[in-house]
Amino acid sequence: MVRRNDPAARVREADAVEASLRCPRLALRGPVFGIAARDPGEGRPWRLVLPVSDGMTPMARDGLNSCL
């Protein structure tokens, strides 16, 4: 845990350490991207076309290109 002068940062880091100990098999990752489409006539306004699993936007755009 990194010591900082910001007490809120210390609390966030302590929470993150505790969570990683509670769920050791959970892997943290940065933002992920996927493809969603809007269905205005349905009960749900959005649906996933491709899974939200790409690590970079170009990969998601390539998936969209393949769908089109």
Q: What is the tally of beta strands?
A: 2
> Could you tell me the radius of gyration in angstroms?
18 Å
Which whole number gives the mean pLDDT?
A: 84
Structural class, judged by helices and strands?
A: alpha+beta
Describe the structure.
The protein is an alpha+beta fold. The chain has 2 helices and 2 strands; from the N terminus they run αββα.
Describe what is shown at a glance.
This protein has 68 residues and is α+β, with helices and mostly antiparallel strands. Helix content is 40%, strand content 22%. The chain has helices spanning 7-22, 57-67; strands spanning 33-38, 46-54.
Topology at a glance:
Blueprint: H1 7-22, E1 33-38, E2 46-54, H2 57-67
Antiparallel strand pairs: 1-2
